[in-house]
Amino acid sequence: GLTAAGMTLVNVNYEPINYLSKSNAARIDADRGTELFSRQLMPVVIYSGKPDGALDPELWKKIEGVLMGIRTDYPDVKTSWIYDQIKQLSLAFTADDPAPAAMPASSDLIAQYLLQFEEHDLQPYIDAQRQDLAVVLHTPVRNSNDFHKFEKDLLGRLKAAGLTAEL
Questions:
Q1: CA distance 123 to 121
Q2: Is the pTM of this model over 0.85?
Q3: Helix, strand or coil for residue 138?
Q4: Is 149 exposed, middle or buried (CB count within 10 Å of its CB: 0-12, 13-18, 19+)?
Q5: What CA–CA distance (Å, rounded) separates 130 from 10?
Q6: Which long-range contacts (CB under 8 A, 24 or more apart) does 15-24 make?
Q7: What pLDDT digit, counting tens, does each position of 83-127 carry?
Q8: How many other C-beta atoms lie within 10 A of the C-beta of residue 134?
Q9: Distance CA 114, CA 121 (A)
Q10: Rounded to 5 degrees, what angle do the CA atoms 94, 61, 123 make?
Q11: How far apart are CA 5 and CA 87, in angstroms?
Q12: Spans in the chain with pLDDT lower than 70
């Protein structure tokens, strides 16, 4: 039988067993499909702790700093949050001039941007009370070991940036 200590050594790997060589045509197709479609959505809620805290530009800068580090160190991880949507909106309004896509510098400016969105567009990123923000990470992690390593690193980065967050 398994003991409690033995259970801590159990690892679960969700990836397929490597029964085909990397040059096999079916394996190449499967790997390509995995690369395109086998992504795990990981919402990260960042708590501001105050009403309208989600409109604080300093909070946004901290979040973007963490995400820049994640994008650099984990090139396969895709990130999505309200700032990404605002950048796209800015580019659409300014004929692709990248200058206006800078981080909003004031809570009033952020509030003005948010008026351009429908409520259901904002819902995945900012709660109704405008207190908390959310970021959605699209990760290719498919096994428990890699997930726990990524989770530990991410939580460490958030804490180091002074952010209170939960996955």
A1: 6
A2: no
A3: strand
A4: exposed
A5: 42
A6: 15/142, 15/143
A7: 999 888 888 777 766 666 778 899 999 999 999 899 889 999 999
A8: 19
A9: 10
A10: 70
A11: 50
A12: 1-19, 34-39, 96-100, 142
